Amino acid sequence: MIFSAWLNASMLLLAFLFLPAQTNAATLSLSVGDIVAPDMSMRGIVLGLDDSGAADLTIAALQLQQRTFKNLKLHCVEFAASTAELHCRQGRSPQFPGTAFDFDYRFDRGEWQVLLTLTAAAAQPYAQWLPQDMPLPNHGKLDGTVRVAGAKNGLSIIKADVRASELGFSDQAGLHAAENMRASLRLDAQNGRDGWQWNAMLDWRSGDLFWQPLFLRGGLVLNGTGRISDTEFRVDHLSAETAQIGKVELAGVWQRQRGEFSEYSVRGKQIGLEQLFADFVRPYLDKSALAETSLSGRADVESYYRDGALRSLQLTLHDAGIVDKQNRFALQGMNTRINWQPENATAALIHFQGGKLLGAEFGASQFELKMQGSAFDANLIPLSLLDGKLDVRDFHLHQEQGNWHWSFAAALGGISMERFSQALGWPAMHGKLAARIPRVTYDGSEIKVDGALMFNVFDGTVIASQLRMADPFGRAPKLSGNLDMHELDLDLLTRTFSFGNMQGRIDVVVKDLQLQDWQPVRFDASLFSSAGNYPKKISQKAVQNISSLGGAGAAAAIQRSYLRFFENFGYDRIGWRCVMRNNVCNMSGVDAGNSSGAYAIIKGGGIPAINVMGYNHSVSWKELVTRLKRVTQNNVKAVVN
User: Residue 401 contacts by C-beta under 8 Å, 6 or more apart in sequence?
Assistant: First the structure.
């Protein structure tokens, strides 16, 4: 519209100047104070003619709508004007280096056209003619031609065949920018009764583009046709092709007033999932758990959307996979064909070759997924996990008020703790891992476990209850719950962690456990000897390691007395408690402690017997973890003062 107003006003000016201009003088100079037309005005207009047929036009100030341009100059190598026509050939302006202008105007019909010939033309000067709220070119060269034409009712034709090199642009907010772009554009657009009909091809060969949050590199070819009216932007057909992704075909209608699609379709064959996900999906998942995942394999897709809802989806996966960089999960060799329709019940047979869950590998499996509308169900998903199995039952996924909800039950059994701990990078543990999960639900923001999870480990029982996880797919998930551990075998436990040998059984209770981003922020933990009769022995090495956690008194006592000659000691009870608040562990032992402030961690019993005392009531949680790592991993003796 701005360009059309400028051309129409220019025609008014030139008609006024040249119709009476019949002279034999070698040089003629004419000036006009100002000219005003709809949406534009020109001031300080001077036109100079010479007998060689050339002309010079100077405009001191040109205002188009709300924008003002100053000291515009144009030199026409060949200029001709009559009562019927006006022509300017090989026009050049110092403000637009590398650009030649050819201009024609018919006074009787009001028809005009402008042809720009670009030869290594600088792109930056054209920024002043573009809206300030869009990315503007700041460097680069342009070659090719641009032809625009119209009549009294405005612009009617735009044809462009332009090549850009070393092109760069940016906007004021820094959300859109490009560097060193090499691309070619062909555009053919014509204005008719139903709006603009357009046909365009963009070949972006190289360079970098940042379009918040996307960062893309060259190698994209777009080819499409469509229409533009006052109410909608219609794409009849658009193909997008890259070497890594393949070819995707799109069509759709964008409602300009509502700012949304009323319908669109997508179709593609053998689409490369790795690059598609990395370039166009993962940038939008920055704050979710999927931000550190990658896809592999290929897919065929055909989908249709209309009036705010997906109407159909056909998806075929070819050896597809997903891998989490933090080794939390992986799925490989997925092959299936999904034909989903919102109003009809369908089913798909899902196959995959295997994967990982928290570092533990599982084998190939297949299951039937039932689909109807926004509800998806699977009766049984069997997984062979390490040397045991995991059965997921009654899986249900549905959409409710714009959020996805899901639930399932599961049973885990027959898994050796030795293989499981090795898979997770833990010290080798003994025993079997088994659990029954009555129900797990997700309501769009929180995962909740109904009932309790029970595990058999270290020849004892671990029960996890009231488990909840908020923001599970965010960057910093929050986990809360309680743990009850009964009759854990100390011999198996201390051998696993190179702590020194202890014999006996313990109960561990952890209440009000709260973790954020998998780091503890609050809990009440208690460790006490289990009830019953069983051998109770502790090695001198274990005494030294325990004393390094709660104080060095016991180790000092051993080294100063005859007890240093004994390798093992008897004990009666073990007790230790930590209440963690604000990253500080407040500790106590079997009893409330004596008058000196020391508290017993181990009460002696038998011959020889020993008491292990603690002297530090408060210690930084970070420091306590460091001490635990030192005595369980590096096996370093406590320092005794």
Answer: none
Tens of pLDDT, residue by residue over 41-76, are: 778 878 888 878 888 888 888 776 567 778 888 899
Q: Transcribe 146-198 into DSSP letters.
A: EEEEEETTEEEEEEEEEEEEEEEEE-TTSSEEEEEEEEEEEEEEEEETTEEEE
- DSSP symbols for 453-509: EEEEETTEEEEEEEEEEESTTBSS-EEEEEEEEEEEEHHHHHHHTT---EESEEEEE
Q: Is 535 in a helix, a strand, or coil?
A: coil
- Rounded CA-CA distance 19/56 in Å is 17
In a domain, 9, yes or no: yes
Question: How many angstroms separate the CA atoms of 573 and 601, rounded?
Answer: 8
Instruction: Look up the domain containing 606 and give its range.
Output: 458-634
Q: Which residues make Cβ contacts (< 8 Å) with residue 23, sequence separation at least 6?
A: none
How many angstroms separate the CA atoms of 625 and 590, rounded?
21
The total of structural domains in the chain comes to 2
Integer Cα distance of 478 and 474 in angstroms? 9
**Tokens matching residue 343:** 């109003």
| 168 compared with 388, residue with greater pLDDT | 168
Q: What pLDDT digit, counting tens, does each position of 496-541 carry?
A: 666 667 888 999 999 999 988 878 899 999 999 999 888 888 887 7
Residue 413: both structure tokens together: 């059994």
Residues 6 or more apart whose CB falls under 8 angstroms from that of 81 comprise 14, 18, 19, 21, 87
Identity (one letter) of the amino acid at 100? A
The domain boundary residue, chosen from 79, 114, 130? 79
Query: For residue 388, how many other CB atoms are within 10 A of its CB?
Result: 19
Q: Which residues pair with 338 in a beta bridge?
A: 315
Residue 633 to residues 498, 499, 531, 542, 543: CA-CA distances in angstroms?
A: 7, 9, 30, 13, 16
How high is the pLDDT of residue 493?
Answer: 78
Q: What is each CA distance from 320 to 91, 315, 336, 559, 625, in whole angstroms? A: 58, 12, 9, 63, 41
Classify residue 97 by its DSSP letter: T
| Burial state string for 423-458 with b = 16 or more CB within 10 A and e = fewer than 16 | beeeeebbbbbbbebeebebeeeebbbeebbbbebb
The pTM assigned to this predicted structure is: 0.71
115 domain-assigned: no
User: Could you tell me if residue 192 is inside a domain?
Assistant: no
**CA-angle at 115, arms to 109 and 121, nearest 5°:** 155
The residue from 59, 79, 99 where one domain ends is 79
Instruction: Give percent above pLDDT 70 in the chain.
Output: 83
Judge whether 611 and 605 are in contact, CB under 8 Å.
no
Separation CA 46–CA 87 (nearest Å):
18
Residue 3, CA atoms < 13 Å, CB-side half-sphere = 17
Find the largest Cα–Cα distance for the chain. Answer: 133
Angle at CA 313, nearest 5°, toward 309 and 318? 145
**Domain membership flag for residue 621:** yes
Please state, in angstroms and rounded to a whole number, the distance separating the CA atoms of residues 68 and 28.
28
What is the CB-side half-sphere exposure of residue 83 using CA atoms within 13 A? 2
Long-range CB contacts (within 8 A, 24+) of 53-57: 53/77, 53/78, 53/79, 53/80, 54/78, 54/79, 55/79, 55/88
